[in-house]
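User: structure tokens for this one?
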Amino acid sequence: MIRVTRRVEFSAAHFYHNPAFSAEENKRVFGKCSNLHGHGHNYVLEVTVAGEPDSATGMVLDLKELKDILQREVVDRMDHRHLNHEVPELAGKIPTCENIAAVIWNLLDPRIKQGRLDRVRLYESPDLFADCTAESNGDVGFAGGPGVTAPLKLSLTRRYRFAASHRLHSAQFSEEENLRLYGKCSNPYGHGHNYIVEVTIAGPVDPATGMIANLGELDPFVEREVIEAFDQKYLNEEIPQFSAQVPTTENVCREIYRRLKPFPAARLERVRIEETSNNSFEFAG
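Assistant:
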């Protein structure tokens, strides 16, 4: 199976508003996003198609055809538009990243004739994106509409950052073995990184809010459980779990997952950490 991904961009405005809520409730739930004048984003859309290469062409699908489909179905429909007022497919829906991704899936799925639509990933910003797939594990994320052929699974990923230092050193090894195994990372004075943490949650989209979970709940939870605990810290000595465990990023990833697993508003799907631009680590429980 080969997966082919095409990226496009579009700029659009939107606001979050539930007419069943009072003005005060809209402000409480949606914050600044409830401003009825709207605000905007430079959206980045990545569409992945999966399949086997055609024996004659060697391609899963003609990328020129995929480019034309994305232009016609997404860019022409949404670019420089106000999503609340000018996109009929979003009528009656709060245009959150989750709902927009699901609408795009439903627009594209009937048009993909070679291979199959595998994933729609929509970035609202570099630090927030939604994934939509047809894989179902019991979480039906979007009720859909005419032409929907399969339940959709939706997830939302948020990026966070903290800076910390650590030393890779195991008491089970000699100094020579530590140096051989960990190299410069065994420096007795430690070293540090600007860590990027991706937190992915999954579950049904609340039709009243258009969200899997409100970022107003997720952000302070991650801030309290991870950022305040790890930021500007020496992990070996200031995080109790690493007093007897080597604070490799593999172990940091598992520890952050453990701390975030109790998040009550949605299911934690995975934690991914970028230690550097060259090294990343992911744990899904």
